[in-house]
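Sequence in, structure out. Go.
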Amino acid sequence: MDPSRAELLRQVEADVVACAICPRLVAWREQVGREKRAAFRTDDYWARGVPGFGDPAASVVIVGLAPAAHGANRTGRMFTGDRSGDFLYAALHRTGFANQPASVARDDGLELSGAWITAPVRCAPPANKPTIDERDACRPYLERELAVLDARVLVPLGAFAYEGLCRILGIRPRPPFAHGVEVVLGDGRWLLGSFHVSQQNTFTGKLTEPMFDAVLLRARALAGL
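Output:
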């Protein structure tokens, strides 16, 4: 791996953590950090922008939605400390991308191999619904990460991430989003869609473990891992 890649990603991380561009998101992430959830009342909430996380040499980039108010907004790491993360990291472990099946804190020993996890919006939004303007304000961070990473496969989780990636990648016309949709990019990369790993999807059976494992294994195959 080019030593400069990790340094460039650290620069993006620093800028994300310091970001205060969107007043609504800044106010909400900090309010949640002060008021806390009863189960986490003794925790010191992160309450800042949440950077991407993973292997700087990743061939697969997984793109979520935004930090969860009491998940990544609390722990400071993508999909860490909430039910969506429980589902995601268990699947990443089963499919060979993670060294352990659970993630509860930034310092819990979790390491990713071949994968990077990021999002189009880096601050927890009210009702878990960022606006298009907030996504657009955050867009440069995702663009910078994608420019540094040498990824072969991009896996958006849900329509919001899919549409955001299509805009960044200049995909027109945009194929309709669907679970398992595959789009071949002109430079040989792939866009491989999946339903989001939200509780709304996993608890209702809209997204099952076999369905998500199949997407991750397909991503491995397309990336040549």
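Check: The chain has a mean pLDDT of 96. Residues 3-223 form a domain with the Uracil-DNA Glycosylase, subunit E fold (CATH 3.40.470.10).
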